[in-house]
Amino acid sequence: MGDAIELLSVKSAKKSFRLGGIFSGKELIAVNEVSFSLFKDAPDIFSIIGESGSGKTTLSRMILRLLLPDSGSIALDQVDVHSMKGRKQVLEYMRNVQPIFQNPFETFNPLNRVDEFLFATAKNFFPGETVDQARERAERALNAVGLALSEVGGRYPHELSGGQLQRASVARAIIPNPKVLVADEPVSMVDASLRMSIVNLFQDLKNKLGTSIVYITHDLATAYYISDRIAIIHRGFFVEQGPTSAILTEPRHPYTQLLVESALDPRPGSTSLADGAAATTGDEEFLAIGCKFAGRCPKAMVKCRLSEPPEIVDGDRMVRCYLYGGNDES
Amino acid sequence: MTEEILRSTGLRASYITHLFGMNREVKVVDDVSLSIRKNEVFGIAGESGCGKTTLLKLIAGFCRPPLKVQSGSVEFMGDPGKPLSLLEATDEELYGIRWRQISYIMQGSMNVLNPVRRIYKSFIDFAYPHMGRMAEKDFRDSVTAHLDKLRLGKEVLDSYPHELSGGMRQRVTIGLATICSPSIIIADEPTTALDVVVQRETLGLMKRLQRELGHTIILVTHDLAVHANMADRIAIMYAGTIAEEGSTKDIFEAPAHPYTQHLIRSLPHIGDKERKGYLKGAPPNLADPPAGCRFHPRCPIAIARCAQEAPSLKACSGGTRAACFLAD
Ligand SMILES: Nc1ncnc2c1ncn2[C@@H]1O[C@H](COP(=O)(O)OP(=O)(O)OP(=O)(O)O)[C@@H](O)[C@H]1O
Ligand SMILES: Nc1ncnc2c1ncn2[C@@H]1O[C@H](COP(=O)(O)OP(=O)(O)OP(=O)(O)O)[C@@H](O)[C@H]1O
Ligand SMILES: [Mg+2]
Ligand SMILES: [Mg+2]
Predict the structure, then answer these.
(1) Which end of chain B is less congested by CB atoms within 10 angstroms, N or C?
(2) Is residue B318 part of a domain?
(3) Which whole number is the average pLDDT over A91-96?
(4) What is the pLDDT of residue A251?
(5) In a domain, B324, yes or no
């Protein structure tokens, strides 16, 4: 993809937070030297998978320009988020990079009716249009996600179920015809058949409208099903990245292997729940020196606990793990 | 037959709201009869908006306006020989059984821990009043020991919710729900917001705790993979009705209702790339549900009768009970 033109480019993006409570005074790097690109004229579904607290939402908030990176760059059409000036440029960025949040209750104000919010979105992005046109845009977006104004009309967010509200928030996001959708766990609240219809919808948006999608999830099956490329994020680092099917069927990083093994198989009693999976207890893993996964990695070596493994690139795959090289010559 | 602990019979309920001077009735629970047994994990599955949470509110005794019961009953058999009707119980009676007999892990509850109270304070607020005359020091010890079973260290007690990961917060809410050793735990999508690794650990802990303490779990989730690995029996809901119920094995291996068959077929497995078919149409608007079987407009095998008459559950050859005229 050497000469492809970048649409969205994330280069060594980094964001830290100060920790409170039990760890107060310490700093946690929620997103650490993360890089990836989406390309023009090659719409793509790029999945980011990782466990709770791995930095996914922080990364998505940076892509949405809701947070600025401490260092590194994030650019849309070669314009860096740091260098944007004026309300107009910022508004244009936000129109083109639209969010679908993890919790649809964050998208909708509880005091406003859902349909009015959709009309307001249409009017906000297409200020010259009439009320009827705004209505029509809202209806079209709702139909695309399997809802209708006749159904959500007049209702407040709490009067819709979680899944209905999530579909409404996908509808809201596609109203301004964005170039990139950043969907942060858009299907974690919906059932398998609706999940399929939402990810099929993403595929249609990609194929028919040319929208690229950053699909953040912990659902490996749908990521496998719709995405072209995937990154596995662990404690702020992309630990593995490459073509989705290769990464999920032949995971290299021990963390990716743990993820793939933990996915519940939908056949009765097929997954043993008894053997305690090696889930973490919290933020302290962020503070580890060296590879953040070493503390629960079955294959950890001494050097893993001493210094961060480098990115090891092999064709179109990247893995950040000493098992695959690095630091051996010393 | 194993002993019954909770039963609902012919339950019908609606949300009644006023809009532009008009009454709007959303018929969310329609003729639901369930029999839940002691010590089982009873799963309730169904797509978003089908009424799972609403059904739980009714069986947990949390019915408040705009939710209104039209008919039917819910009985709790905590005290053998003296069933308590949860829909008619007084506030004191309900207070008496909450936490100690029936505890309820609400959907999204890991986000509703009071953000400005340390975790231990939430235990004091919710659970301590139900512990009889226990001294506070003993209570703290028992909370510490209990959380240890959920692999939470004692420093968690002095933390604020935002200092914990989602998985830890969810384990705290499970700890809260189980600390008084209730006979029934009602859990609404307890692991939906968790990632696969933490989900598997949380479910493992819930199951182990259940074996140790011997309570019944009513587990609601749309995620059939969770049911496949947790539930002893499953009820499949569609648009406020029970479409099918049976043992987990039978539901997965011999589903008789066309809706269940569709759900089982659409389950994603890693390795799938083909586009899965999905049902035509959308779930009905519950303010105006279709006559007859609520599934008939989307059903691939519907006949004329399905549009006129609502089928009731009947035993099928595969071992399940399905609400379908054509199932056998
Ligand atoms: N504003 C903030 N201040 C301090 N710490 C924060 C802030 N936002 C996030 N963090 C911390 O950064 C880490 C990454 O959080 P983030 O929300 O990005 O994770 P996530 O991968 O989206 O998790 P989940 O799957 O639970 O949504 C967490 O440890 C979190 O506690
Ligand atoms: N307070 C309310 N007022 C009016 N309608 C409501 C109210 N709460 C829920 N509803 C409607 O009742 C129906 C069932 O909602 P419920 O929350 O029980 O569904 P659910 O199966 O739990 O969905 P999910 O899987 O998305 O959580 C939905 O159509 C919803 O819009
Ligand atoms: Mg997140
Ligand atoms: Mg619900």
Answers:
(1) N
(2) no
(3) 90
(4) 96
(5) no
Contact: A282, B168; criterion CB under 8 Å: yes
The complex's ipTM?
A: 0.73
- Distance, in angstroms, between A238 CA and closest chain B CA? 17
In this prediction the pTM is 0.81
Check if A18 contacts B (Cβ < 8 Å).
no
Backbone angles phi, psi at A323, to 5 degrees: -60, -20
Three-state DSSP state, B293: coil
Q: Which of B323, B276, B51 is nearest to A266 (CA)?
A: B276
Residue B156 is part of which domain span?
4-231
Spatial separation of the C-alpha atoms in residues B73 and B69, rounded to whole Å? 9
| pLDDT class of B79 with cuts at 50, 70, 90 | confident
The answer to the question of residue B294 being in a domain is no
CA–CA separation, A231 vs A318, rounded Å?
Answer: 9
**Which pLDDT belongs to residue B303?**
96
Query: Å from B175 to nearest chain A CA?
Result: 15
Half-sphere exposure of B149 (CA within 13 A, CB side): 19
Stretch A229-233: mean pLDDT, rounded?
Answer: 97
Ligand nearest, relative to CA of residue B193: 1
**Could you check whether the bond before residue A251 is cis, i.e. omega within 30 degrees of 0?**
no
Decide: B17 and B26 in contact? Cβ < 8 Å: yes
Domain count of chain B? Answer: 1
C-alpha triplet A265, A268, A273: angle, nearest 5°: 65
Residue B277 predicted with pLDDT over 80: no
**Pocket probe mutation, ligand 1, options A17, A237, A285, max atoms within 8 Å of Cβ:** A17
Q: Is residue B260 part of a domain?
A: no
CA quadruple B46, B48, B49, B55: dihedral, nearest 10:
40
For chains A and B, count residue pairs whose Cβ atoms are closer than 8 Å: 192
- What chain A holds in terms of domains, given with CATH numbers, is 6-324 (3.40.50.300)
Mean pLDDT of chain A: 87
Q: What is the pLDDT of residue A330?
A: 43
Strand-pair partners of A14: A71
Q: Does residue A279 carry a pLDDT above 80?
A: no
Between residues A194 and A58, which one has the greater pLDDT?
A: A58
Distances B195 to A53, A219, A224, B17 between C-alpha atoms, Å: 10, 8, 16, 36
- CATH of residue B88: 3.40.50.300
Residue nearest to atom 6 of ligand 2 (CA): A159
Query: DSSP readout, B186-230?
Result: EEESTTTTS-HHHHHHHHHHHHHHHHHH--EEEEE-S-HHHHHHH
Angle between helices B119-126 and B166-178 in degrees, nearest 10: 30
Q: Is B261 helix (H, G, I), strand (E, B) or coil?
A: helix
